[in-house]
């Protein structure tokens, strides 16, 4: 059994208590509050229990009863007390009740309380709370729900809940919502239905958008000109799924959507190739830094091609254009007095005989005491760090303790630029779509006060500093790398300045993970503001949280997680990978990739919901109407469906416009859910056997359904481009449907008229079987090395150890191939005596 709960959700308390009391074994999974675990419900329902049969329980009462029955118990008095507690769901909004409630404040605020709370029997309530507060099971459940965060633990859950209605509001109806809306069913008015029917009748636009992009794409007068960048991936490694969803995939979805909307859009990206990471990788593989860059640039390009990332141009930073533009910005900053010199104490590894770059020092964070903070930033608290501030630092290459040495460097004078930066930020964050974490991280930087930031490093591999007093140094990668956006665009077109020196006409969207925010919201904008050359600054900064792997982090060294090319070896189509990564996209909080969840979402949402509806709609045309779309005579029920679908389309557009990519995807799935319910209620496979109105009704249901399938193909295009094209190919959908449906606030029209002949219909998705998923989970779980070590420690038989070592070597060989390395082990050096 699997129990799905969410942090801060009081509804989950009882079921966790029941597990504690009974001792029933059950996997507990923490999911987002908005996660739709039960596939056939139109809105999230947590807690939810997935039974061995594949069915779901999603009532806390039912789950508790089931848990007790599994344990061989009837519903005890204790269990029934918990059921009674759900009778009245309240939130205390005044403080005069609090002193009566000795139970933890979280439960005092949110637990379902007996009706007699307001009857004046406060002593009874107090005695009851005293009793419950002493129970270990309740204390444990509260700790699990709150995750050790106190009242803050329930904040995100409560913020998503509708405001409670007053008794007067409930009595008089409807106030701001009706019972149907509270239950998740949208109320559709007569006016809504007629408006939807009118839109439906208008048909497709006469002039479809051009299928082929005309390069170079340049800003145009009178158009919405969008420049999209995704954080440049480091060239020295194969990207994992978290890298892909955090940057290039999210930007790709938005770019595809923007083109469907008719925006004039350019999407550029490339590999970030300078810095110590590249030097070390070259040393590891016995190659020059340039050879490493050439090798991994090809690997990155092939991975993104397989994931169908549709860059307009994918470049790199090791170019003459990079040097030219970076040095020009440097001299402008220097000439305008925004650079200062200072002597810096740096960490030097005497064993490696070199100054250590920030990311090759690791130690304890001076701010939050996180033990694995890097020399430039702490992953836990997000604060930027100077490497010498780390406590107990170590060289990450050799694990020796470095020493402090002095070196003269150049700094960007951020305090001198702070006023300009704040003025620009006030405008950009208030008018653009900045994610909440991007605003928060930026505010924390400004709150702490800006400090000069070093822009030079004692390295060989980098853009050379042109100043004669610093000719032995190169630019620090976080000064240099964002300039790569400009140089990559300059490699794409010699008219790059029309994009990058045109803030009046161009909107700039930056996509990244949250650890990159300060460099894009503070450091890089200050560089461009200080250059005083009319540069285009970011209008919309879109940052994700982190994607974890199962219950841990991605780790190449431990073989944990799916990295780049490995996804191709799973025989799971790239569109399914795209769908799941976007479904769990960490928009508001960290999320996790889970094999079991991926299988469940594939089988429930893609196969049983989306694929089932589209396949049935098209098959009805083929089977019942000889492949031609039948005539449609709309009734009220059909108009209601058109209005519901039109509303979901409008929500999709509003969310995508705001770059709420994950949330928008849910509206696609809602439409196919509406369609499945519509087909089930109307049963066209039965009505087609009748005559007259019965047969006509079957035709109308089929015609409406197949047109909804056509709409879904368009809405899916940014997410699943191959599936989208396959649907349109099967339906022989006109190209103009792509340009019509997403215009304005959304236009659901009849794209497939009566008599339109569709093509051959085949299933869109395949079921992911349990044994297949378990094998993949084991393969990418990084467990084989631990197993070998455990067997050796137990002094197991040599044959057993040898067999497991062979499996480990095979996994390492697969990893090496995925990384583009030789699968053969490096020759061993002789041991010193």
Largest sheet: 5 strands, parallel
Rg from alpha-carbon coordinates: 30 Å
| Shape summary | globular
Percent strand? 5-15%
Q: What value does the average pLDDT take? A: 84
End-to-end gap: 57 Å
Task: Characterize the structure shown.
Belongs to the class-I aminoacyl-tRNA synthetase family. Keywords: Aminoacyl-tRNA synthetase, ATP-binding, Cytoplasm, Ligase, Nucleotide-binding, Protein biosynthesis. Its EC number is 6.1.1.10. The protein has 833 residues and is an alpha/beta fold. Among the domains are: 126 residues, 3-Layer(aba) Sandwich (Glutaredoxin), CATH 3.40.30.10; 174 residues, HUPs (Rossmann fold, 3-Layer(aba) Sandwich); 45 residues, Methionyl-tRNA synthetase, Zn-domain (Rubrerythrin, domain 2); 150 residues, Isoleucyl-tRNA Synthetase, Domain 1 (Orthogonal Bundle); 36 residues. α22 packs across α24 and α23 packs antiparallel against α24.
Please describe the topology of this protein.
Layout: E1 2-5, H1 13-22, E2 27-30, E3 48-50, E4 56-57, H2 60-70, H3 77-85, H4 105-110, H5 122-133, H6 136-146, H7 155-159, H8 167-172, H9 179-182, H10 190-202, E5 225-230, H11 241-260, E6 264-271, H12 276-285, H13 289-306, E7 313-316, H14 320-335, E8 339-349, E9 354-355, E10 361-364, E11 373-374, E12 391-395, E13 403-412, H15 414-431, H16 436-448, E14 453-454, E15 456-457, E16 474-475, H17 477-480, H18 483-492, H19 497-500, E17 506-513, H20 517-531, E18 540-544, E19 547-549, H21 574-583, E20 591-593, H22 595-625, H23 636-657, H24 661-682, H25 684-687, H26 693-716, H27 721-731, H28 736-740, H29 770-779, H30 784-793, H31 798-818
Parallel strand pairs: 1-2, 5-6, 5-17, 6-7, 17-18, 19-20
Antiparallel strand pairs: 1-3, 3-4, 8-9, 8-13, 10-11, 10-12, 13-14, 15-16
